[in-house]
Design a protein that fits this description.
heterodimer; A: mainly alpha; two-stranded antiparallel ribbon; globular; B: mainly alpha; elongated
Chain lengths: ~800, ~110
């Protein structure tokens, strides 16, 4: 049993190259935190600060120096670029190995980390076809987010801190991606949880931001604890957490599947089933599935690059990645390994849970997205919805389709978030312009932000009764616009204030349009179409054979896809089309095409547009008319590549759905239908200033308000969980804290006070006695001895004489005696 | 030849007189004179031992040069002269301050 050994990294060896990928961003985090993050304390009104967030007014804030900004950006970018280059190198080597070979052989290296029981626990990196696809997606998306942050955070007083945290975030995501065991994955998972907490609450001066941060952290924590239980249980059953040892090993899978679970085992649940359910609950939290989805819309409080990071490149993808990774365990979770087979309509608990939760969430949050007015909230709900697609796909065994959708979704959702961030930035820019124009910028904090009359007109439409329901919630940005509540400041994220931005920020518009069409699944030319189509094709395969879960998934997802197309068009229509509905939208802009902000914020959009449109072409079914033979003459490349990350045995191996017109026409139909409906309602006759959302007329006000308020689930949770927790906390405070603990504490304090008094007496009597006694004795002795010094020379001499005589006598006697004694 | 012990007796006597003078006289100058007597007693001893060094046989191999003892005596004269000069200077200073040459009265250094 040795101590920690360091991995020996050889840059020519793809097995060990993986260690280096998370290293760059991690080092960047430490360098920025420890060295380059330097700030000066300045009043928040300082021109360096800008006025990105009026909540800072009246405070002295640390503002990063210009040098620190440049250095931090450089360091952060270097880390990510390094990660990207190494990742692409690995991807190249993986592709070079080729289909079929790569998968049986993987790039892996491990070191023993700590001794657990008889065997050392080993951690390491693993690159197989599954996470190779993530190694393409994550670094590219992260790099785009970093470039974007340069512009988006350019005026933020804590830009260095931002880059440090987001580097750590990237490092954690890459660690998770490359982990070869569940524990290392969980470490990355938790570090991301921490980073998301710190980044959602990045503008912690805002109450809504820190509340959202706490909410996100708490909700995901609930799921994470359960997931940790699953991990621990898996370790106790399998004796290892290594993915290859468990998931690529039929014997271990069988053993786990044949072990009855520790609880509910008598009801026929195997250990694999219980572990799977625990892990899926972890993902439900992390990937924001019903019923733990509530944290994700609030996470919009963070800066927009963070939203892109959380919602696209990293955090929620990590949740889906974890269950995709653990899929063989789920399939094996029946009574015995191999009894469950989604491709033949035999389901077990974990798969059903995935299918039901996934498809329900997909539809459920798509309905909520329809009635949102916050430009980012729409995207947040669509993220939840799309993640539901992936969960549902995995639940019906569409392993490849789920992976494919994970990748394409990450690209177009990162694009959409960043584009919406550009919109928000442009609106804030317009707000500044209007302020300066009206000379309002000198007004004190709290009432000097955007009191133009047309805003009142635009927002007074909401019924007064919603005010109290919404203030309960406390995080909703719409509060500021509800009648009867004081208008705190203008909300640059509210789509009702926008309109006509297509002419103001055309690059962003086209990027947003590309991303939106991809999200909507616009046929043939967008990535989203191909991945959604593959999920539907898989679901249809089962439906056509009469399997219930597949049918559920198929129809739920088809409706959700329809809604997706619709709300995407609604969003783009409200934001970009028609005439500006406010003076602020009239002046929106990114500061000219040549400003650094404008370039930094729109360049990544252009990069991502490429992926959002064309990333789907790697997964075109070969039987697809016209495009199939062109793009994938030798079979679906993505499918054939990724499927080898699974054992090629009966229930596990992915089944390629044969080409069928039903899912394709469904995909066409729902996408085009939704787009048409959205176009009809929001493009043909764009919303005018002061006009109500036509949705209210169609759905009825009560339904609309229910959707907008998220089915009042937040209020319900607040009543069911938050309020009781607070009540318990109060009781604990009174009885336990103040009564018991404080009582004990006071008793202890009293005892020690008494003991102290005792020691004080002892001290003054004994210690002081001894302490003072010694110098006094020395003093007295000195006083006595000074009598010897008379100052009389003759006396001294007399003494000398006497002493000499005595000594002489002594020597005379002893010498004589010695002489006598000596022989 | 006069035996060694006679020199030693004379020297011891002289030394005792010196000691007695130093201890008993009240006048500082007389004390100095006593010191001179003691030094000279030592000189007598040195010269006598040098002269009679062959009789202390085991201490004199190899034989010393002729002048050794006398050199010591000469040193002592110089030391005595210096000592007398310093002593007299002290006495003069004390006298100037106190109008007295009695050592017993110069007891400023009493503890």
């Amino acid at each position: 049993m040795t101590g920690l050994e360091l991995p020996i990294i050889d840059i020519n060896d793809p097995n060990t190259l993986g260690w280096l990928i998370p290293l760059g961003p991690l080092l960047a985090f430490f360098i920025i935190t420890l060295i380059t993050n330097r700030a000066r304390w300045l009043p928040a009104t300082d021109p360096h600060y800008g006025s990105h967030h009026p909540d800072y007014d009246g405070m002295t804030v640390p503002i990063v120096t210009d040098w620190s900004r440049v250095a931090s950006i450089t360091v952060g970018m270097s880390g990510v670029v390094m990660a990207l280059l190494i990742s692409l190198n690995l991807v190249g080597q993986g592709l070079a190995l080729g289909e079929g070979v790569f998968g049986k052989e993987v790039f892996a290296s491990a070191i023993s980390w700590m001794a657990l029981g008889d065997v050392p626990f080993r951690i390491g990196v693993l690159v197989d076809p599954l996470n190779l696809t993530l190694l393409v997606m994550v670094p590219i998306a992260v790099l785009c987010i970093f470039i974007y942050s340069i512009g988006y955070m350019a005026h933020d007083p804590r830009q260095s801190r931002f880059f440090a945290l987001i580097s750590l975030f990237a490092a954690a995501m890459l660690t998770l991606t490359l982990a070869d065991n569940l524990l290392l994955l969980f470490i990355g998972w938790e570090v991301m949880g921490l980073c998301s907490y710190m980044l959602i609450g990045f503008w912690y001066e805002k109450k809504s931001a820190y509340q959202a941060a706490i909410k996100a952290f708490t909700v995901t924590r609930i799921a994470d604890v359960i997931m940790l239980l699953g991990i621990v249980y898996l370790f106790s059953v399998a004796g290892t957490l290594n993915f290859r040892d468990i998931l690529y090993n039929e014997a271990v899978l069988e053993q786990i599947a044949n072990t009855p679970a520790i609880i509910l085992g008598s009801w026929g649940i195997s250990a694999a089933g219980l572990i799977s359910v625990f892990l899926i609950i972890g993902t439900i939290g992390k990937s924001a599935q019903f019923p733990l989805h509530v944290w994700l819309p609030d996470a919009m409080e963070g800066p927009t690059p963070v939203s892109a990071m959380i919602h696209a490149a990293a955090m929620v993808s990590a949740g889906i990645y974890a269950i995709i990774r653990m899929y063989p365990l789920f399939v094996g979770a029946g009574d015995a390994f191999g009894t469950a087979d989604p491709h033949h309509g035999v389901f077990n608990e974990p798969l059903l849970l995935l299918a039901i939760v996934g498809s329900f969430t997909a539809l459920f949050s798509a309905t909520m997205a329809v009635a949102q007015n916050d430009v980012k909230a729409v995207l947040a709900y669509s993220t939840i919805s799309q993640l539901g697609f992936m969960m549902a796909a995995l639940g019906i065994g569409a392993y490849i389709a789920a992976t494919f959708h994970l990748i394409t979704h990450a690209f177009f959702k990162a694009l959409l978030f960043m584009a919406s961030g550009s919109v928000i930035h442009a609106m804030e820019h317009g707000e500044h312009h209007v302020h300066e124009h009206h000379g309002h910028h000198a007004l004190p904090h709290g009432n000097g932000h955007g009191h133009d009359h047309d805003h009142h007109d635009a927002h007074d439409e909401l019924p007064a009764g919603t005010a109290d329901m919404m203030t309960e919630h406390g995080v909703d940005t719409d509060i500021q616009h509800v009648e009867g509540v004081e208008h705190v400041h203008f909300d640059p994220q509210d789509m009702r204030n926008m309109g006509g931005l297509a002419r103001k920020i055309p690059v962003t518009f086209y990027a947003f349009l590309a991303g939106g069409l991809s999200l909507a699944g616009f046929p043939l030319i967008t990535a989203g179409f191909w991945s959604k189509d593959e999920i539907l094709a898989d679901a249809w395969l089962g439906t056509s054979e009469g399997f219930g879960p597949q049918a559920l998934v198929f129809f739920m997802l088809a409706i959700a896809a329809f809604l997706t197309a619709f709300y995407t068009m609604r969003q783009i229509g409200l934001t970009f089309w028609g005439e500006p509905r406010t003076e602020i939208a009239e002046h929106a802009g990114l500061g000219g095409p040549r400003s650094i902000v404008s370039i930094a914020m729109q360049l990544p959009l252009v990069i991502l547009v490429f992926f959002a449109l064309f990333a789907g072409f790697v997964g075109v079914p070969p039987e697809f008319p016209i495009l199939g033979p062109i793009l994938s003459p030798e079979g679906n490349p993505f499918f054939d590549f990724v499927k080898y990350s699974l054992l090629q045995i009966e229930p596990l191996a992915p089944v390629k759905p044969p080409f069928s017109w039903v899912p394709v026409l469904t995909s066409f139909g729902v996408a085009l239908g939704g787009i048409y409906l959205g176009w009809r309602m929001y493009w043909r006759r764009p919303l005018q200033a002061g006009e109500e959302d036509p949705m209210i007329r169609i759905l009825g006000r009560s339904v609309y308000m229910t959707l907008q308020n998220r089915y009042y689930l937040d209020q319900l949770y607040s009543m069911l969980f938050v309020a009781p927790s607070k009540w318990i906390a109060r009781q604990v405070n009174v009885f336990l804290d103040r009564g018991l603990i404080d009582g004990l504490l006071h008793l202890t304090a009293r005892f020690f006070t008494w003991l102290g008094d005792l020691f004080k007496v002892l001290n003054s009597w004994l210690i002081d006695g001894v302490g003072d006694g010694i110098p006094r004795a020395i003093f007295d002795f000195g006083g006595w001895l000074r009598g010897a010094q008379t100052g009389r020379v003759q006396q001294y001499l007399l003494v000398v004489l006497v002493v000499v005589l005595v000594i002489g006598l002594f020597f005379a006697l002893t010498a004589g005696g010695g002489a006598v004694a000596a022989p | 030849m006069v035996p060694l012990w006679m020199y030693l007796v004379v020297a011891a006597t002289l030394f005792c007189i010196g000691v007695f003078t130093v201890l008993s006289r009240r006048n500082g100058v007389a004390v100095l004179m006593g010191i001179e007597l003691m030094l000279n007693a030592v000189n007598i001893n040195l010269v006598a031992f040098w002269r009679y060094n062959t009789t202390i046989a085991d201490m004199t191999t190899p034989l010393p040069s002729e002048l050794n003892g006398m050199v010591f005596a000469a040193f002592l004269f110089v030391v005595a002269a210096a000592e007398a000069a310093v002593g007299l200077a002290i006495i003069i200073t004390v006298y100037r301050n106190r109008r007295s040459v009695i050592p017993e009265e110069a007891d400023t250094l009493r503890g």
